[in-house]
Specification:
The complex is a heterodimer.
Chain A lengths: L6 E3 L4 H10 L4 E3 L5 H6 L7 E4 L9 E4 L2 E5 L4 H6 L1 H6 L1 H7 L5 H6 L2 H7 L6 H7 L3 E6 L2 E6 H4 E3 L2 E2 L6 E8 L5 E8 L9 E10 L2 E10 L6 E2 L1 H7 L6 H7 L16 H19 L4
Parallel strand pairs in A: 1-3, 2-3
Antiparallel strand pairs in A: 4-5, 5-10, 6-7, 6-10, 8-9, 11-12, 12-13, 13-14
Helix pairs in contact in A: 10-11, 11-12
Chain B lengths: L12 H6 L14 E7 L5 E7 L1 H4 L4 E6 L32 E2 L5 E7 L2 H8 L3 E6 L6 H4 L13 E9 L2 H5 L4 E12 L8 E6 L4 E5 L4 H12 L6 E4 L15 H13 L3 E4 L2 H7 L3 E12 L5 E13 L8 H7 L10 E10 L13 H19 L3 H8 L8 E2 L5 E2 L4 H12 L1 H14 L3 E11 L7 H6 L8 E7 L5 E5 L8 H13 L6 E5 L16 H28 L6 E4 L2 E4 L5 E3 H10 L12 E6 L8 E11 L5 E11 L6 H21 L30 E4 L17 H18 L13 H8 L1
Parallel strand pairs in B: 1-12, 10-11, 14-15, 20-21, 27-28
Antiparallel strand pairs in B: 1-5, 2-4, 2-6, 3-5, 7-15, 8-13, 9-10, 9-12, 13-14, 16-17, 18-26, 19-20, 19-25, 22-23, 23-24, 26-27
The chains are: A alpha+beta, B alpha+beta.
The complex binds flavin-adenine dinucleotide (FAD).
Chain lengths: ~280, ~775
């Protein structure tokens, strides 16, 4: 990798890291480097300073906090997908993390980095959005909580302010009988999602009581398929589910790129949502 | 036990896999400087100004140059295959001086103390371009009013091969299949990117390059730069794959030589993957218009091929020859009396194309194998049955084809029967019918590919008749060391194939020495003075045979010495398993004892030199013709368009096998690469001529995780044209697999009215074909 020149800082504490960021608008946080380094390599980003938070204490690990799971910003994808706490408290996160890239990337890339990077094609933003996660950020001024619905601002843009570092994410545990599935559509195993659908459904007595649906790569940010969610409410398993999932592409603005045109992505969103809901509801 | 035929693990693998070896990029020379190239962002433009002065002043920068600085010395990159009388070979300066013709063409460079400073300094170079219209579509390029890539126009050449009366065959044919297939442009993706290092003492030059062709490269660089051949040494150290992309004389190789001369320092350049996607020569890129005429029973009357071949912006080493190699293969394994092949080479403002695994044969095989399936569908026959009715039967060999080649041996029946039984053909057909009947959203398709190819490039006389600039021989040397160990110097240049192992096996058998007592040296023109290098599945068939021939000469010498020592006539000496014995007695000498005796030279027969070594240069009599039957089953999800390869059976006949493990590896990698073309890979340029697939996120290459477990097996019909009976296996998998996969996809969708899907068969393309 031959990036442009930059300074490198490895602060010992979170406070120092926040100060370093506050002091320089062009400084950038470096976590696992799996999204930032490719940008540097291609010389698409020219930060003055990289503030390496990779060894900061307190940002790592996955913690069971009773009504929610707290995933440290520095927890790697691999750690997350293997974590018994995640598997028990928010299995959808583990299902999605397992589809990220390849083992090498999953051992370096971090949960916080995936969200802060805010790539709508990433797998985790849609999941955190679907599960109504709450992102915890820290700056020199203190700590702040941001609901996932307010976090993803635009393509690769979040509402994190300059000088703020994401320290972790609270994922509320869902009460009741929930089923989960992450349906990722990609051309090769290691490729990014053309479309990804994250689904959590609560079912009882042969019908769906509640559904939460997050869409990857269907707009400039991760999206909730709200129309499909409402259409699914109270629907009996069977043909009616397919009908309801036809709403999955409503209010989306999917990109056009080498791998797919928008109309095809909309079609996929509908088909994949149906499949994901059926799998999550335990009906093959 | 014979070594040949044994599945030896490759002796070179430990060092290649652990990296305890010299890759060009690892090497360091004292005082080394690093080169970075500024590349054109325009597909076509006049260069009106290049100002490198600001870059020259930056810290760490040793030198910066524009094309004009090389104008006197850089020559023109060579094209060694002027295929026709009408060919236009445009001047191809290694660094553009006045006009750029593709995105990525080098326009300036920086030499700096490290590679970061070199890359940074590129930003300080100013270039003014006056845009010229890009030329991107081959059909448009050939129209009257098209903008021109070169002054002489956009037609590079025309070339024709014709046999029999095709017009008559097509006229009133009971069945006529008329199709156009697009061979998309591919980017060869060797694991090791290109890397070049050059140094000079002021008079002599040494160039290290991740190349397939050190010998050809030395000759061509000498001719291009004017550096005398004996003052230029070229070294290909261990090289991490090539697939044809390193069968080239590149701009960067020429410029690194010139830069070491200009700066007086050793220089190195290593490409990034994105730089490589832009500027490694591309492969394929043809439009094939194929018309096949057949009788009502499916027997072929004749075949016409109209081919447009995209040359890109310039003709590189064998650019125009690639479609010509294909010309001999469109008829495949089938008998027909009339064939007409017309090719037009077209210039466009894109990276030049050149050899890529199979070079012309995959394209041709794809077309004929696709069309055979269409013929079967038209006649409502099983695709295997249509092939049976047309292929050369085993008792008909040797057989001279309509394209003029003489296939020496083959047994298509045996390979096909074996493949069918391994595949469970009938059972899969039954399941296919069942899924069709049920209207299953996941449909099953079965693809057949009964391929052959021409390997073992090549008889020098044939190359001469095709206007190729060089011969097709290969050279080998074998020398016995005093301790009885053996050094082999080969003129072919491995870059992952396993020559060291295979050659050791051949030598071990020929001389009766242990496998581990043989070492194989290659790739350095100062040590291996003579060679034609590695491409076209030629190494074993020509280079391995040359080593065997050298062994035979060593044995003859040893026999004379043995006779002298054993006090008998040479004719009374028999050789077996490393020992020369007086016929019918126990009295003998091992080849190791004779090696030492020859070294000591105390008692050699009169007139015999004190050396137990020999050279051989072998020119093949004919090409070799591996063949096989590949069967592929795919599941196509008709709701999403996604294809999944469910099973894949390859039965290849590569003649005698020296090392089954190496053959297996070549087949696996080859199939993967062919599947890559069928399903995943495509170099895409936008309407301005920018390459959109410059990273591996955009240019998708399959990995093991995307592929099923291949079932591989072989039949063994020895080649009759060489003493080893070998045919070559480097390209077979790639040639066979692409049509097998696409035939399977079309087979799955045919009831839905789909007769073709353009490659790569992406889910979106399949979905649109179904919509
Ligand atoms: C080959 C490859 C394939 C990939 N495929 C996928 C895929 O299929 N699906 C997928 O979801 N992802 C994929 N990724 C991306 C991967 O998930 C990254 O790990 C992730 O996007 C970023 O995490 P990181 O820790 O590496 O962040 P970095 O690269 O270090 O940082 C990314 C961005 O986030 C900022 N940042 C990081 N951490 C914080 C923090 N705690 N607070 C504030 N800002 C922060 C950085 O400043 C930077 O702007 C792939 C990456 C690669 C290299």
């Amino acid at each position: 990798m031959i990036p442009a020149q930059f300074d490198y800082l490895r602060p010992a504490t979170l406070e120092e890291a926040c100060q370093a960021l506050a002091a320089d608008d062009e400084a950038k946080v470096l976590a696992g480097g799996q999204s930032l380094l490719p940008l540097l390599r291609l010389r698409l980003a020219y930060p003055t300073t990289l503030v390496d938070i990779g060894r900061l204490p307190g940002l790592t690990g996955v913690h069971d906090r009773g009504d929610h799971v707290f995933i440290g910003a520095l927890a790697t994808h691999d750690e997350v997908l293997r974590s018994p706490v995640v598997r028990a408290g928010c299995p959808l996160v583990a299902l999605a993390a397992a589809t990220v890239a390849d083992p090498a990337v999953r051992h370096r890339g971090t949960f916080g980095g995936s969200l802060a990077h805010a790539d709508p094609a990433g797998d985790l933003p849609a999941v955190v959005l679907a599960l109504d996660g709450v992102l915890v950020a820290r700056s020199a001024e203190g700590e702040r909580e941001i609901a996932a619905a307010d976090f993803f601002a635009d393509y690769l843009e979040t509402t994190l302010e300059a000088g703020e570092i994401l320290v972790g994410v609270k994922i509320p545990k869902l009460a009741g009988e929930w089923g989960f599935h992450y349906e990722k559509f990609r051309r090769t195993v290691q490729a990014w999602a053309i479309v990804g659908v994250a689904v959590a459904v609560r079912r009882s007595n042969g019908s769906i009581q509640e559904a939460r649906i997050g869409l990857s790569n269907m707009g400039t940010t991760p999206l909730r398929a709200r129309a499909a969610e409402s259409a699914l409410q109270g629907v009996e398993l069977g043909e009616a589910v397919r009908q309801a999932c036809e709403e999955a592409s409503a209010d989306t603005a999917p990109p056009a790129d080498l791998h797919a045109q928008p109309d095809y992505r909309r079609h996929l969103a509908r088909v994949l949502t149906h499949r994901a809901v059926r799998t999550a509801a335990g009906t093959p | 036990m014979t070594e040949v035929g044994t599945a030896r693990r490759r002796k070179e693998d430990a060092r290649l896999l652990t990296g305890r070896t010299q890759w060009t990029d690892n090497m360091q020379l004292p005082g080394m400087a690093y080169v970075a190239f500024l590349r054109s962002p325009m597909a076509h433009a006049r260069i009106t100004r290049v100002d490198v002065s600001a870059a020259r002043g930056l810290p760490g920068v040793i030198a910066a140059y524009a094309g004009a600085d090389f104008a006197e010395e850089q020559g023109s990159l060579p094209c060694a295959w002027p295929v026709s009388e009408d060919i236009v070979i445009p001047d191809h300066p290694p660094m553009a001086v006045s006009e750029v013709r593709y995105v990525g063409e080098a326009v300036a460079c920086v030499v700096a103390t490290d590679r970061y400073k070199a890359a940074d300094a590129l930003d300080a170079i100013e270039v003014d371009y006056e845009p010229l219209p890009p030329v991107l579509d081959m059909n448009d390029a050939l129209t009257e009013g098209s903008p021109k890539v070169h002054e002489a126009g956009n037609q590079a050449f025309t070339w024709r091969l014709t046999q029999g009366d095709v017009d008559a065959a097509l006229r009133d044919a009971p069945v006529l299949i008329d199709r156009t297939y697009i061979q998309q442009r591919l980017i060869p993706t060797a694991m090791e990117p290109r890397a070049v290092m050059a140094t000079s003492d002021g008079e002599s030059f040494t160039l290290w390059s991740a190349t397939q062709i050190p010998h050809v490269l030395r000759l061509m660089l000498a001719l291009t730069t004017g550096i005398p051949e004996h003052k230029l040494r070229v070294i290909a150290p261990d090289v991490g794959g090539g697939f044809g992309s390193k069968l080239q004389v590149t701009a960067e190789e020429v410029l690194c030589l010139l830069l070491t001369r200009k700066t007086g320092r050793p220089v190195k350049w290593t490409e990034s993957r994105s730089e490589g996607n832009l500027t490694v020569h591309h492969g394929r890129d043809q439009i094939q218009h194929v018309t096949l005429a057949a009788e009502a029973d499916g027997r072929i009357r004749g075949l016409r091929v109209e081919l447009l071949a995209d040359m890109g912006a310039y003709l590189m080493l064998v650019t125009p020859g690639v479609p010509i190699l294909g010309a001999f293969m469109f008829n495949g394994i089938y008998k027909m009396d009339a064939y007409d092949f017309n090719c037009t080479g077209v210039f466009t403002t894109k990276m030049p194309t050149d050899a890529y695994r199979g070079a012309g044969r995959p394209e041709a095989t794809y077309a004929i194998e696709r069309v055979m399936d269409e013929l079967a569908a038209e006649l409502n026959l099983d695709p295997i049955e249509v092939r049976r009715r047309n292929w050369i039967r085993h008792e008909e060999f040797p057989y001279t084809t309509v394209a003029g080649l003489t296939y020496d041996s083959g047994n298509y029946e045996a390979a096909t029967d074996k493949a069918l039984s391994l595949f469970g053909y009938d059972k899969l057909r039954a399941e296919q019918g069942d899924r069709r009947d049920r209207g299953d959203p996941v449909q099953l398709g079965i693809g057949v590919s009964t391929y052959t190819e021409m390997c073992g490039l090549a008889p020098s006389r044939v190359l001469g008749s095709l206007s190729y600039g060089a011969g097709g021989w290969e050279h080998g040397s074998v020398r016995m060391l005093p301790t009885g160990k053996v050094e082999v110097v080969t003129g072919s240049s491995p870059h992952g194939q396993g020559h060291e192992t295979a050659w050791s096996q051949i030598v071990a058998d020929a001389l009766g020495v242990p496998f581990d007592d043989v070492s194989v040296i290659h790739g350095d023109t100062a040590i291996s003075h003579k060679g034609m290098d590695t491409y076209g599945s030629r190494s074993l068939v020509v280079g391995g045979v040359a080593v065997l021939a050298a062994c035979e000469k060593v044995k003859e010498k040893a026999r004379k010495i043995a006779a002298h020592v054993l006090e008998c006539a040479p004719d009374d000496v028999e050789f077996s398993e490393g020992t020369f014995r007086v016929r019918g007695t126990d009295s003998g000498k091992t080849i190791q004892e004779l090696s030492l005796a020859t070294f000591a030279a105390h008692d050699l027969p009169d007139g015999v030199e004190a050396r137990l070594d020999a050279d051989a240069t072998v020119d093949p009599d004919n090409f070799s013709f591996p063949h096989g039957t590949h069967l592929c089953a795919v599941e196509v999800d008709t709701e999403t368009g996604m294809t999944k390869i469910r099973s894949y059976v390859a039965v290849d006949d590569v003649g005698k096998v020296v090392n089954p493990l190496i053959v297996e590896g070549q087949v696996h990698g080859g199939i993967a690469q062919g599947v890559g073309q069928a399903l995943y890979e495509e170099a895409v340029y936008d309407a301005e001529g920018n390459l959109l697939t410059s990273t591996m996120a955009d240019y998708l290459v399959p990995s093991a995780a995307d592929l099923p477990a291949f079932v591989t097996d072989r039949t063994e019909t020895p080649a009759t044209s060489n003493p080893l009976g070998v045919k070559g296996v480097g390209e077979a998998g790639t040639i066979a697999s692409t049509p097998a996969v696409v035939n399977a996809i079309v087979d799955a969708l045919r009831p839905r009215g789909v007769h073709d899907v353009q490659m790569p068969c992406t889910p979106e393309r399949i979905w649109r074909a179904l919509s």
